[in-house]
TrEMBL record:
NCBIfam families in the record: nadC
Reactions that this protein is recorded to catalyse: nicotinate beta-D-ribonucleotide + CO2 + diphosphate = quinolinate + 5-phospho-alpha-D-ribose 1-diphosphate + 2 H(+)
Organism per entry: Rhodospirillum centenum (strain ATCC 51521 / SW)
One GO cellular component term: cytoplasm
Protein name, per record: Probable nicotinate-nucleotide pyrophosphorylase [carboxylating]
Positions of the Quinolinate phosphoribosyl transferase N-terminal domain: 28-113
Function statement: Involved in the catabolism of quinolinic acid (QA).
Length: 284
């Protein structure tokens, strides 16, 4: 399936800053010392494990920013399932800029492929339950748009992108606002008609009170599967149910089988395992 990447405007500055961080004020002194300006190269990006490709266009931008004349060819578009040794892309042209951009490109690509790969594994684990895997705002600063894109590539869905696109009332909001009813009433009075309101609850008693209030979704926090199943029955389809907290690859299926609508996982983005990708020069 083709996945349209975010607009370059959303990530070009990020890639540019990553290159500047790596190059420093003196540039790539190793490549400049060892490699002639006339040297040409053909670099092949290969997967070293099985997984799902994500973030190729943003990652390959690192090469184009250093040398717009480089020929960049994508062999495995985002969303492709690859095996060890699978070719993701090929970059051809002057050797120096390829060497200088290599680490920046692989750092970004490895992270985004890692997110897509572990998302896809979770989606497979809950297949047939009707639940969806969603990410959270626990993203790497500056990388949110790309990390959430990688979740979509892996078959997951996105929770809110920031503080400004939905209301999510959590435990500390309830304390500061003076209770559940007061918090929901203030949020409903403030939110526009296009803004959804979700409330986090820890107990079935809180849920019972919430069901008397005008909200769109409930976040069922750190509940065991038996409690989640009871909570879903109490809601009876009147609002979206979201399970969150302490959910692992081993427990995700049991959570999904309780009937919840969504399963949100912060570690999907904040504790991603880097996807191993190699870049190797071949004779030109």
């Amino acid at each position: 399936m083709y996945h349209s990447p975010p607009y370059p405007l959303l990530y070009e500055d990020l890639v540019r800053r990553a290159l500047l961080e790596d190059l420093g004020p003196a540039g790539d002194i190793t490549a400049e010392a060892c490699v002639s300006t006339r040297a040409r190269a053909r670099a092949v990006l290969r997967s070293r494990k099985a997984g799902v490709v994500a973030g190729l266009e943003p990652s390959l931008l690192a090469f184009r920013l250093l040398d717009p004349t480089l020929a960049v060819r994508i062999e495995a578009p985002d969303g492709t399932a690859v095996e060890p040794g699978g070719v993701l892309a090929v970059v051809e042209g002057a050797a120096r800029p390829i060497l200088s951009a290599e680490r920046t490109a692989l750092n970004l690509l490895g992270r985004l492929c890692g997110i897509a790969t572990q998302t896809a594994a979770l989606v497979r684990a809950i297949e047939g339950t009707g639940a969806a895997i969603v990410c959270t705002r626990k993203t790497t600063p500056g990388l949110r748009a790309l990390e959430k894109y990688a979740v979509r590539v892996g078959g997951g869905q996105n929770h809110r992108f920031g503080l400004d696109d939905a209301v999510l009332i959590k435990d500390n909001h309830l304390v500061a606002a003076g209770g559940l009813r007061a918090a929901v009433q203030r949020a409903r009075a403030r939110a526009g008609h296009m803004v959804k309101i979700e409330v986090e609850v820890d107990t079935l008693e809180q849920l019972a009170e919430l069901l008397t209030l005008p909200v769109d979704a409930v976040l069922l926090d750190n509940m065991a599967p038996d409690t989640l199943r009871e909570a879903v029955a109490m809601v009876g389809g009147r609002m979206i149910t979201e399970a969150s907290g302490g959910i692992t690859p081993e427990s995700v299926r049991a959570v999904a089988e309780t009937g919840v609508t969504l399963i949100s996982l912060g570690w999907l983005t904040h504790s991603v395992r880097n996807f191993d990708i190699g870049l190797d020069f071949e004779p030109v």
